[in-house]
Write a structure and sequence with these properties.
Blueprint lengths: L4 E9 L4 H13 L4 E6 L3 E3 L10 E10 L3 H14 L14 E7 L4 E2 L4 E2 L8 H11 L11 H6 L14 E6 L6 H12 L2 E3 L9 H5 L6 H15 L10 E4 L5 H9 L2 H15 L7 E6 L2 H11 L9 H16 L6 E5 L8 H12 L14
Parallel strand pairs: 8-10, 8-11, 9-10, 11-12
Antiparallel strand pairs: 1-4, 1-5, 2-4, 3-4, 6-7
Helix pairs in contact: 5-12, 7-8, 7-9, 8-11, 10-11
């Protein structure tokens, strides 16, 4: 008796009668010997990726059981595409129908003809939304995360791997959550550039934390300039991997907490030109822990200028970060709870590093199954 495999197929169309093409493809799948169609997600409309001047797509996901091998299933899908009139195989080109194997059981396949899981499915909300509708608890065999978790990282947006930009991974979170420790360990494991906040060289910060509010604007402008220099795309080359222990967007969070109204008005007029000069992250790691636990770490590491930080201030920062990432659309966000992750444990760091490799476009790293 032939082995039966549960597989998931992505369907898309942006030419002609789009919905009819998808429905016809599902019908032809069901009529193919060795394939049973079990479920089909709702059809949704999405903007084209890659070449933005294309018509919008209709997309869906089909769950099938099949006695075919992955290679034979791939060939059957190609035959259906041809039968429905697809002639252009150019990447990112418009098409009458597009059929992709997203998952084939729990198998990991890398051949010149076939990559399974689909190498960018974890970057597509329109794919993960369909997968969650059919099987939200299915575990991605490379990322070792459920479809539901992967979808939550995208916040409803769709992304592509782009080797033409710096591959910046930024770590966000409140003071004392462990951003620098994690950044240092990840940069070492990934063998990449490390970008750290210029705390030690800021000549104003200690006075600001000591209560000299008149220097708060000078301190914020110092950070603004230093971070803009660090994140300059001319310095961070295209395709170069870098890990920073901050996200540039924190600038406005801290400015709005530390500056008075007059200072903030000046700062907000200064900020936009600088913000337009920095490389955007391709991935954010958002570390989360209670403000009380972070305050405990701040006291333990005993930096003199931090000892007057109050719990209320950390709680306010935590709320600011939560609002920032609630509608974040710049890049995927991996949220990590410190209660479930230990920055000092090599297995945890290795797991996260392998996750990161799936979200960056670089030939220098190869993603392996995350254990």
């Amino acid at each position: 008796m032939a082995k039966v495999t549960l597989a998931y197929i992505g369907l898309g169309s942006n030419l002609g009668e789009r919905e009819k093409s998808i429905q016809s493809a599902v019908k032809m799948l069901a009529e193919t010997e060795g394939i049973d169609v079990n479920q089909v997600s709702d059809i949704i409309e999405t903007s084209a990726l890659g070449q933005r001047n294309q018509p919008k797509y209709l997309n869906a996901v089909a769950g099938v059981t099949t006695s075919l091998s992955s290679g034979d299933l791939h060939k059957k899908l190609a035959d259906i595409e041809v039968s429905l009139g697809r002639v252009n195989k150019e990447k990112w080109a418009s098409r009458i129908i597009d059929l992709d194997i997203l998952l084939f059981g729990g198998q990991i396949i890398n051949t010149p003809e076939l990559t399974i899981p689909h190498h960018q499915m974890h970057l597509r909300s329109f794919v993960l939304g369909g997968m969650c509708e059919l099987c939200f608890h299915f575990v991605h065999p490379v990322l070792n995360a459920t479809m539901e978790e992967l979808e939550s990282r995208l916040n409803g947006a769709d992304y592509i791997l782009n080797p033409k930009v710096p591959q910046l991974v930024s770590i966000g979170g409140i003071i004392g959550v462990g951003k620098t420790t994690l950044a240092e360990k990840l940069s070492k494991l990934l063998g990449c550039r490390l970008l750290l906040e210029a705390y030690d060289t800021n000549p104003f910060m200690q006075d600001v934390y000591a209560g000299k509010k008149q220097l708060a604007l000078d301190s914020q402008l110092y950070f603004l300039r230093s971070r803009t220099e660090q994140l300059n795309p001319d310095i961070l080359a295209a395709g170069q991997i870098a890990v920073s222990d901050y996200i540039f967007d924190k600038e406005l969070i801290y400015a709005r907490r530390l500056l008075d109204n007059r200072q903030l008005s000046l700062y907000e007029n200064t900020y936009p030109p600088f913000a337009g000069q920095v490389a955007l992250p391709v991935l954010v790691i958002y570390l989360q822990d209670s403000a009380q636990s972070c305050l405990g770490r701040i006291h333990k590491r005993n930096r003199p200028y931090e000892q007057k930080i109050e719990l209320q201030f950390l709680e306010a920062l935590d709320s600011d970060y939560q609002r920032l990432f609630a509608d974040w659309k710049t890049c995927p966000v991996i949220r990590i709870s410190i209660s479930e992750f230990d920055c000092t444990r090599d297995t945890d760091i290795s797991y996260l590093a392998n996750q990161i490799k799936c979200y960056i476009a670089s030939d220098s790293v190869i993603a392996k199954p995350a254990k």
